[in-house]
Amino acid sequence: MTQKKKQIIACSALTFLILVADQAIKISVKTGMHIHQSIRVTDWFYLLFTENKGMAFGMELFDKLFLTSFRIVAVGVLTWYIAKQIKSGVQWGYLICLIMILAGAAGNIFDCLFYGMIFNNPPAPLVAELVPWGTGYGEFMLGRVVDMFYFPLIEWNWPSWLPIWGGEHFIFFSPIFNFADANISCGVIALILFYNKRFRQ
């Protein structure tokens, strides 16, 4: 078996595994916890079920339909780029970073495309259930992304005498994210740290 075929098989398998793990976690949380329910694992790690319409880590910067369309285009471009890199005989490490980003983005796209079609949206303390296709809480491409990992590593109150944020409660690290987000972030960080030169090229 040639090196290119090995890389194609490995990339396909890794993408599949990340997607399956991401969706398994999301569906378990969505059908096992009610919205905004929190489960304490440690003082600095919680499972906190939230949903968002926007980008990674709960940010909401653009229109939902535009964002979903942009994600699909980005995944298409990245898939083309990965295929091109395999043909050029790219390093395994560089390829794995790209696959993590691709699979993570695809995992969140799946939520956006289908979750509104296949899940209902009951109020707490009820949990969501799978429903017949097209009878869910939203339309195609307008589903919400499921997030659950919350790491409030450090918390403090700002001194009241500060002109900005005085007396306010501060949490580091406050974003809530999912397995797909983690793969995207780790892939990007690894590219910057270990493949900076090639990434710039």
Please tell me about this protein's structure.
The chain has 201 residues and is an alpha+beta fold. It has one domain. It has a four-stranded antiparallel β-sheet. Helix 1 packs parallel to helix 3 and helix 3 runs antiparallel to helix 4. The longest helix has 30 residues. The chain is globular and about 60 Å long. The model has no long low-confidence stretch (mean pLDDT 89).
Task: Give the SSE map.
Blueprint: H1 3-32, E1 38-42, E2 45-52, H2 64-87, H3 92-118, E3 145-150, E4 154-157, E5 169-172, E6 176-177, H4 179-194, H5 196-200
Antiparallel strand pairs: 1-2, 2-3, 3-6, 4-5
Uncertain regions: pLDDT < 50 for 5+ in a row?
A: none
Average the pLDDT over all residues and give the rounded result: 89
Based on helices, strands and strand pairing, what is the structural class?
A: alpha+beta
Total domain units: 1
Q: What separation lies between the terminal Cα atoms? A: 30 Å
Count of discrete alpha- or pi-helical segments spanning 4 or more residues: 5
Q: Would you list the SSEs in sequence order as H and E? A: HEEHHEEEEHH
User: What overall form do the CA principal axes indicate?
Assistant: globular
What share of residues are in beta strands? 5-15%
Largest sheet, strands/sense/barrel: 4 strands, antiparallel
Number of DSSP E strands: 6
Q: Roughly how many Å is the radius of gyration? A: 19 Å
- Work out the helicity level: 40-55%
Sequence of strands across the biggest β-sheet: 1-2-3-6
